[in-house]
Predict the structure of Queuine tRNA-ribosyltransferase.
Amino acid sequence: MFTFQLQHTDPKSAARAGRIETAHGEIQTPIFMPVGTLGTVKGVHQRELESDIRAQIILGNTYHLYLRPGLEILENAGGLHGFNGWKRPMLTDSGGYQVYSLSAQRKIDEEGVTFRSHIDGSSHTFTPERAIDIQRIIGADIIMAFDECPPYPCDYEYAKNSMELTHRWLDRCVKRMAETGGKYGYEQTLFPIVQGSTYPDLRRKSAETIAAAGQPGNAIGGLSVGEPAEAMYETTDQVCHILPKDKPRYLMGVGTPENILECIALGVDMFDCVLPTRNARHGMLYTSEGIINIKNAKWKDDFSPVDASNPCYASQQYSKAYLRHLMHTKELLGPQIASLHNLSFYLWLVGEARQHIIDGDFASWKEEMVKRVQRRL
Amino acid sequence: MFTFQLQHTDPKSAARAGRIETAHGEIQTPIFMPVGTLGTVKGVHQRELESDIRAQIILGNTYHLYLRPGLEILENAGGLHGFNGWKRPMLTDSGGYQVYSLSAQRKIDEEGVTFRSHIDGSSHTFTPERAIDIQRIIGADIIMAFDECPPYPCDYEYAKNSMELTHRWLDRCVKRMAETGGKYGYEQTLFPIVQGSTYPDLRRKSAETIAAAGQPGNAIGGLSVGEPAEAMYETTDQVCHILPKDKPRYLMGVGTPENILECIALGVDMFDCVLPTRNARHGMLYTSEGIINIKNAKWKDDFSPVDASNPCYASQQYSKAYLRHLMHTKELLGPQIASLHNLSFYLWLVGEARQHIIDGDFASWKEEMVKRVQRRL
């Protein structure tokens, strides 16, 4: 059921336009996936995700959903689709990253990771098998392999051992996937994850290992964890040359609009990041003309739309002055408007990228856009 | 331009169905007006107010809007309609109540009230004339007279002096209204306010004074400030008998669903209250079957809609279990869903009341509904 069709390649870069088919529908790539950590994209209704933002796939988070609402409720609801009412494709990360970044007293060994909940201190163990089982229950169309995501910077020995552990865990994830079926009658697909920090030989080894696993799609992890943008681009470039062309490539946790444009040019098809929603809640707006800090005094009597070039309801309906007022008075509607706007912009951006790939002028458009989206307005 | 047409009266109670016409459109009464204190109904987009909640008129708050965003911005925006994009009728309270309840170091004298801002401690003076001028700038279709709202309980002498001050201030409001015109080219209408605490002779005197002022609509203030429900009903009943039948009656700050039903039966046409939104943010849902505390464990695996009998998107789309999860995890979407639901229920309730008045069976329907809406589910 899961298929990827490579539709166009850019003549002047490695950018690609493609089409993923899942049990919950189609995804046109390159794509940005809004993050719905706890089963909700913060501040955004499901119908807004569908109609205003035009999201094609959203993320859920295994670590968070496992803790709250918990597997019994998710299973009784028929998975996260049944629980939150989202009808389109969904991807879950495996929880590895959150175990390392959020939980207390984590202990990693060959078997898996034992950690204490950041909410109530209760003890839990994730193994590769358990991470697959949980994601089966959440009902994601795309399930991520359970990996260790090392910090940055990370010494070579740690990065090497961590990568090798991630590869051994992948074998167990693949085995568990094969032993189990789609929990709710539709196919669920595993994406393995390339690790290796920023060491080229480790990244090459990892990319080759992940490519050899022969799964329907592949991911690049361990980036956007504090390394310089150049290191991110170099590693992504190297890995994209090794990962198979006929399968989608997902760069995890990336990033700013310029990061996304640059990595599309390197051959990445899928992105996710909390930036558009998290920064929205702090009043930072991404637009096709640059970045707006809506809290600044300069917007206080600017009655023009939040972003006249963005077709989204929230960008058109509300003025900059009104949004500034809402952010200053800490009104709920402020983050709501800014989140709608930013996500809508991200989806517009990848949609434009796709169109320019199809039209054959992606490289020159990208050069211009990378400059524009970084300007401070 | 402002007109009120009394369309139906209930044979078994004092309930009325009517129609108000303002420069921004029509209001069918009885009506509930969602409160948009700072120019936003908390957690609700303008299009949701229009299409999902079907609000016909919303409130703004003079005290809050005067402090933030301030009059210069509101005036440059063309008033609050221009600032927040709401196209339908708007009413502003005069700021009197908030001066007494929120501000620090307030000093009341014949001239007006001097107070310090609850935000930055800055000093400001509201007089009856100033309250009119500010509401002209906000651009409300219905402007409230500047009054003193005494606390409850309140000794007789204080209540009497306060009421007499309110009456003298009303004369100044009426004079100022006559001296000034609609700020943005459309008519703005003054509603005077009956005070007198819970003393029948003061209420009678005040209602007669307010009726004699001959304004197009009249309000009852100083209730829903801590007095027993019976005192509220008795005072409302008494005042409604004195206020003219051919003008709309607005009971300020009321109330629970049963308060609204009872006061419709006493002849009130307009209501506002923060309860549906404030309680929504704490997980209390009003439904036609009773009150739900969505945080309770009993809802954790109830996958039925938030309220199957409410046609609102949010009530239909999301399950009780999902909303409980959102409230427990303090996700923004929780208050958003609950606010949409509660306001939608309030508008449904007054719409049903209106229909039953027109159909002639309001009294029996009201008796049944008053019982149902108070049940704890």
